[in-house]
Structure formats: structure tokens, C-alpha cells
Design brief:
With 69 residues, the protein is of the alpha+beta class. The protein is 59% helix and 16% strand. A three-stranded antiparallel β-sheet has the order 1-3-2. It starts with 5 loop residues before the first helix and ends with a helix.
């Protein structure tokens, strides 16, 4: 028996999803195009990780990039 309810799971899952961005969401946040977005990721200027064939970006990494520039 679990001590978490379904609503607890949904709250945790929503918070998790808000902290991890797709490349498209990052592009919207920074108002940049696809080429620039992937260049920033490849050069390590914005920290990310790959999950399968997709990049995942931590919102915190994008915010750090914004504050550093």
C-alpha cells in the first residue's frame, strides 16, 4: 500500500515537468531559433542531457545562462 495519493503523484509529476524543458520550450524562453538553440547545447553553454534522441534542459540551466549574459 502506498502512502502517496494520486493527487500527490500529479503534483510531483507537474513540478518535475515544469523543471525540465524541451528544446522548443527553451527556444521560446530565449526567443531564439533552432540552430542557435542546438549550438548553445552542443557548446555546453546551457547544460542539458539526452534522453533517447531528445535533449532535455533544466530550467535552472537556462536561467543561469540568462543571468550570466
Amino acid at each position: 500500500m502506498s502512502i502517496f495519493t494520486e493527487s500527490d503523484y500529479n503534483i510531483k509529476n507537474r513540478a518535475y515537468n515544469e523543471d525540465i524543458l524541451t528544446v522548443n520550450e527553451m527556444m521560446d524562453m530565449l526567443a531564439i531559433g533552432k540552430n542557435t538553440a542546438y549550438k548553445l547545447l552542443r557548446e555546453g553553454k546551457i547544460k542539458s542531457f539526452r534522453l533517447g534522441n531528445s535533449y532535455k534542459v533544466l530550467r535552472k540551466s537556462v536561467q543561469e545562462y540568462i543571468y550570466s549574459h
